[in-house]
Amino acid sequence: QVQLQACGGGLVQAGGSLRLSCAGSGRSFSRYAMGWFRQTPGKEREIVAGINWSGGSTYYPDSVKGRFTISRDNAKNTLYLQMNSLKPEDTAVYYCAADSRILPGYSEHSYEYDFWGQGTLVTVSS
Hints:
This protein is mainly β. It has strands at residues 3-7, 10-13, 18-25, 33-39, 46-51, 58-59, 68-73, 78-83, 92-99, 115-116, 120-125. Strands 2, 4, 5, 6, 9, 10 and 11 form a seven-stranded mixed sheet that branches. A four-stranded antiparallel sheet has the order 1-3-8-7, with no helix packed on it.
């Protein structure tokens, strides 16, 4: 089991950057694939980045590819999301999540993640 707490959201102008962090508790953090998701009112939660247990494999949808970077520090039980060149359409509540299945890779599907952080709001002004 792992508990997750995300932070780092805030208000930023278009073109700016933010770095989200997700602190995890529990000895299993380093064994789990992790993901960052975002959600806006009336829309389904969507993945913006995924990373496998070691950090050696990552995934980004086209909407954020080249702008967002996911990374993890297993020694610190922490997941990161560096967001650059932010756009107003990136405005959302961002969640970190852990997939407790022991896999070499990661999932793109929110329903396969079973531990979730509380969310942090990112607002990008135009």
